[in-house]
Protein backbone atom coordinates (compact mmCIF):
# COMPACT_ATOMS: atom_id res chain seq x y z
CA UNK A 1 0.00 0.00 0.00
CA UNK A 2 1.23 3.49 -0.88
CA UNK A 3 -0.01 6.54 0.99
CA UNK A 4 0.20 9.98 -0.66
CA UNK A 5 0.01 12.94 1.73
CA UNK A 6 -0.95 16.29 0.19
CA UNK A 7 0.75 18.11 3.08
CA UNK A 8 -2.13 20.14 4.48
CA UNK A 9 -1.56 19.01 8.07
CA UNK A 10 1.80 18.18 9.66
CA UNK A 11 2.39 15.21 11.89
CA UNK A 12 0.66 12.47 9.88
CA UNK A 13 2.31 9.42 8.37
CA UNK A 14 5.03 10.16 5.84
CA UNK A 15 3.50 9.98 2.39
CA UNK A 16 5.02 8.90 -0.91
CA UNK A 17 5.15 11.11 -3.98
CA UNK A 18 4.36 8.34 -6.48
CA UNK A 19 2.73 4.92 -6.75
CA UNK A 20 2.90 1.80 -8.94
CA UNK A 21 1.16 2.02 -12.34
CA UNK A 22 -1.17 -0.89 -11.60
CA UNK A 23 -2.56 0.57 -8.37
CA UNK A 24 -6.13 0.69 -7.25
CA UNK A 25 -6.13 4.38 -6.36
CA UNK A 26 -8.46 5.62 -3.63
CA UNK A 27 -9.08 9.34 -3.24
CA UNK A 28 -11.27 11.23 -0.80
CA UNK A 29 -12.69 14.64 -1.75
CA UNK A 30 -9.92 16.87 -3.16
CA UNK A 31 -7.65 13.81 -3.08
CA UNK A 32 -9.67 12.32 -5.93
CA UNK A 33 -9.28 15.50 -8.01
CA UNK A 34 -5.55 15.41 -7.24
CA UNK A 35 -5.34 11.79 -8.44
CA UNK A 36 -7.11 12.68 -11.68
CA UNK A 37 -4.84 15.71 -12.26
CA UNK A 38 -1.54 14.17 -11.20
CA UNK A 39 -2.07 10.46 -11.82
CA UNK A 40 -2.05 10.61 -15.62
CA UNK A 41 -4.58 7.74 -15.66
CA UNK A 42 -2.04 5.29 -14.23
CA UNK A 43 -4.55 3.20 -12.33
CA UNK A 44 -5.76 -0.33 -12.57
CA UNK A 45 -8.93 1.01 -10.93
CA UNK A 46 -10.11 4.19 -9.20
CA UNK A 47 -12.20 4.65 -6.07
CA UNK A 48 -13.83 7.97 -5.29
CA UNK A 49 -14.90 8.55 -1.72
CA UNK A 50 -16.92 11.76 -1.86
CA UNK A 51 -14.67 12.92 -4.69
CA UNK A 52 -15.14 15.18 -7.67
CA UNK A 53 -13.55 15.93 -11.02
CA UNK A 54 -14.23 19.68 -10.95
CA UNK A 55 -15.23 21.49 -7.77
CA UNK A 56 -15.67 24.93 -9.33
CA UNK A 57 -18.15 23.51 -11.86
CA UNK A 58 -20.58 22.90 -8.99
CA UNK A 59 -19.67 25.35 -6.23
CA UNK A 60 -19.43 29.14 -6.61
CA UNK A 61 -15.83 30.37 -6.70
CA UNK A 62 -16.78 33.03 -4.15
CA UNK A 63 -17.36 30.30 -1.57
CA UNK A 64 -13.84 28.94 -2.06
CA UNK A 65 -12.31 32.44 -2.17
CA UNK A 66 -14.06 33.23 1.10
CA UNK A 67 -12.41 30.24 2.72
CA UNK A 68 -9.05 31.53 1.47
CA UNK A 69 -9.67 34.90 3.13
CA UNK A 70 -10.62 33.03 6.30
CA UNK A 71 -7.36 31.08 6.22
CA UNK A 72 -5.41 34.34 5.99
CA UNK A 73 -7.33 35.83 8.96
CA UNK A 74 -7.56 32.84 11.29
CA UNK A 75 -6.61 29.44 9.88
CA UNK A 76 -7.58 27.54 13.02
CA UNK A 77 -11.09 28.98 13.21
CA UNK A 78 -11.61 28.58 9.46
CA UNK A 79 -10.64 24.91 9.50
CA UNK A 80 -12.69 24.31 12.65
CA UNK A 81 -15.76 25.71 10.87
CA UNK A 82 -14.99 23.60 7.78
CA UNK A 83 -14.56 20.42 9.82
CA UNK A 84 -17.83 21.17 11.60
CA UNK A 85 -19.56 21.50 8.20
CA UNK A 86 -17.97 18.17 7.25
CA UNK A 87 -19.58 16.53 10.28
CA UNK A 88 -16.62 16.19 12.61
CA UNK A 89 -14.79 18.09 15.30
CA UNK A 90 -11.31 19.56 15.02
CA UNK A 91 -8.79 16.83 14.41
CA UNK A 92 -5.60 18.87 14.12
CA UNK A 93 -4.24 21.71 16.22
CA UNK A 94 -3.77 25.09 14.54
CA UNK A 95 0.02 24.82 14.72
CA UNK A 96 -0.12 21.64 12.60
CA UNK A 97 -1.85 23.42 9.70
CA UNK A 98 0.27 24.18 6.64
CA UNK A 99 -1.58 27.35 5.64
CA UNK A 100 0.43 27.90 2.46
CA UNK A 101 -0.35 24.36 1.29
CA UNK A 102 -4.03 24.71 2.29
CA UNK A 103 -4.17 27.90 0.22
CA UNK A 104 -2.64 25.99 -2.70
CA UNK A 105 -5.34 23.32 -2.29
CA UNK A 106 -8.03 26.01 -2.45
CA UNK A 107 -6.45 27.21 -5.68
CA UNK A 108 -6.74 23.66 -7.06
CA UNK A 109 -10.43 23.68 -6.15
CA UNK A 110 -10.91 26.89 -8.12
CA UNK A 111 -8.78 26.04 -11.17
CA UNK A 112 -8.58 22.30 -11.78
CA UNK A 113 -11.05 20.69 -14.14
CA UNK A 114 -10.40 16.97 -14.65
CA UNK A 115 -13.69 16.10 -16.33
CA UNK A 116 -11.95 15.14 -19.58
CA UNK A 117 -9.39 13.05 -17.70
CA UNK A 118 -12.17 11.21 -15.86
CA UNK A 119 -14.06 10.66 -19.12
CA UNK A 120 -10.96 9.07 -20.69
CA UNK A 121 -10.36 6.61 -17.85
CA UNK A 122 -10.20 3.08 -19.16
CA UNK A 123 -10.42 1.37 -15.79
CA UNK A 124 -13.13 0.30 -13.35
CA UNK A 125 -14.40 3.11 -11.10
CA UNK A 126 -16.23 2.92 -7.77
CA UNK A 127 -17.92 5.97 -6.24
CA UNK A 128 -18.88 6.05 -2.55
CA UNK A 129 -20.93 8.92 -1.13
CA UNK A 130 -22.96 9.99 1.89
CA UNK A 131 -26.54 11.19 1.72
CA UNK A 132 -25.87 13.90 4.32
CA UNK A 133 -22.66 15.30 2.79
CA UNK A 134 -22.85 19.11 2.93
CA UNK A 135 -19.60 19.64 0.99
CA UNK A 136 -20.31 17.29 -1.93
CA UNK A 137 -24.10 16.94 -1.67
CA UNK A 138 -26.02 14.15 -3.39
CA UNK A 139 -27.04 16.25 -6.43
CA UNK A 140 -23.38 17.16 -7.03
CA UNK A 141 -22.31 13.53 -6.66
CA UNK A 142 -24.97 12.39 -9.14
CA UNK A 143 -23.95 15.07 -11.66
CA UNK A 144 -20.25 14.16 -11.39
CA UNK A 145 -20.58 10.41 -11.68
CA UNK A 146 -22.92 10.30 -14.70
CA UNK A 147 -21.65 8.58 -17.82
CA UNK A 148 -22.89 9.30 -21.36
CA UNK A 149 -24.25 5.76 -21.62
CA UNK A 150 -25.95 5.81 -18.23
CA UNK A 151 -25.14 6.53 -14.62
CA UNK A 152 -22.26 4.88 -12.82
CA UNK A 153 -23.61 3.16 -9.79
CA UNK A 154 -22.86 5.26 -6.71
CA UNK A 155 -22.95 3.37 -3.44
CA UNK A 156 -24.61 5.50 -0.81
CA UNK A 157 -24.27 5.60 2.94
CA UNK A 158 -27.24 7.26 4.59
CA UNK A 159 -24.91 9.31 6.73
CA UNK A 160 -21.26 10.05 7.34
CA UNK A 161 -21.09 13.75 6.51
CA UNK A 162 -18.11 14.67 4.35
CA UNK A 163 -15.88 12.46 6.47
CA UNK A 164 -17.22 9.08 5.44
CA UNK A 165 -13.83 7.34 5.90
CA UNK A 166 -13.62 8.76 9.43
CA UNK A 167 -17.20 8.09 10.51
CA UNK A 168 -17.83 4.87 8.54
CA UNK A 169 -14.39 3.28 8.07
CA UNK A 170 -15.66 -0.32 8.11
CA UNK A 171 -18.36 0.49 5.54
CA UNK A 172 -15.81 2.17 3.24
CA UNK A 173 -13.28 -0.64 3.66
CA UNK A 174 -15.88 -3.31 2.91
CA UNK A 175 -16.93 -1.65 -0.36
CA UNK A 176 -13.36 -0.92 -1.46
CA UNK A 177 -12.28 -4.51 -0.73
CA UNK A 178 -15.30 -6.00 -2.54
CA UNK A 179 -14.52 -3.77 -5.53
CA UNK A 180 -10.82 -4.70 -5.47
CA UNK A 181 -11.54 -8.42 -5.27
CA UNK A 182 -13.95 -8.20 -8.20
CA UNK A 183 -11.29 -6.70 -10.48
CA UNK A 184 -9.50 -9.23 -12.62
CA UNK A 185 -5.71 -9.29 -11.97
Keywords:
single chain; 185 residues; alpha/beta; Rossmann fold; 2 domains; four-stranded parallel β-sheet; two-stranded antiparallel ribbon; 7 helices; 13% strand
Give a quick rundown of the structure.
43% of the residues lie in helices and 13% in strands. The chain is α/β, with parallel strands linked by helices.
What is this structure's SSE topology?
Blueprint: E1 24-28, H1 30-38, E2 45-49, H2 61-86, H3 99-111, H4 115-120, E3 125-130, H5 138-144, E4 146-147, E5 150-151, E6 154-157, H6 164-167, H7 169-182
Parallel strand pairs: 1-2, 2-3, 3-6
Antiparallel strand pairs: 4-5
| CATH level-two architecture of the largest domain | 3-Layer(aba) Sandwich
Strand portion = 5-15%
Inertia-based shape: globular
Q: State the end-to-end CA separation.
A: 16 Å
Describe the structure.
The chain is α/β, with parallel strands linked by helices. The protein folds into two domains: 24-55 and 113-182, 3-Layer(aba) Sandwich (Rossmann fold); 61-104, no CATH class. It is 43% helix and 13% strand. It contains seven helices and six strands; from the N terminus they run βαβαααβαβββαα. A four-stranded parallel β-sheet has the order 1-2-3-6, sandwiched between helices. A two-stranded antiparallel ribbon has the order 4-5. A hairpin with a 2-residue loop joins β4 and β5 (150-151). α2 (61-86) packs across α3 (99-111). The longest helix is centred in the middle third of the chain and has 26 residues, at 61-86. The protein is globular and about 50 Å long. The two termini are 16 Å apart. The model has no long low-confidence stretch (mean pLDDT 90).
Amino acid sequence: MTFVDLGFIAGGPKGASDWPDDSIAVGHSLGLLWLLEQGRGRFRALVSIQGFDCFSCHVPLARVASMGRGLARDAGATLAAFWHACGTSDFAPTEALNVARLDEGLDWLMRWDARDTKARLACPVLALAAGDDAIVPPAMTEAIWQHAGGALSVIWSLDGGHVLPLRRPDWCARHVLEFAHAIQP
